Amino acid sequence: MLEPHSLIEPGGARSAIYGPGKEFVALPHTGAEEQLVVGEIDLSGIQAAKLQHDSAGRYARSEILRLLIDTEPKTPLVSAKSAG
Q: For residues 21 and 45, is the Cβ–Cβ distance under 8 A?
């Protein structure tokens, strides 16, 4: 357990670790003392969570993010004047 910190006042914050299915992997810590929250995540559940993400719907913000694939061949050495 870490020592209490004198510069940070106790507040309404809490720390926890959530898994891909929104379940607790590590229960929340809400006390006044600082503590390290540790948990193990089963990585096999990540693929199912990614399939549920709506990447073509309301999260697809073309004004903010776009995928650009540059198929032009590159050279390993580029001068600073031509690297625009």
A: yes
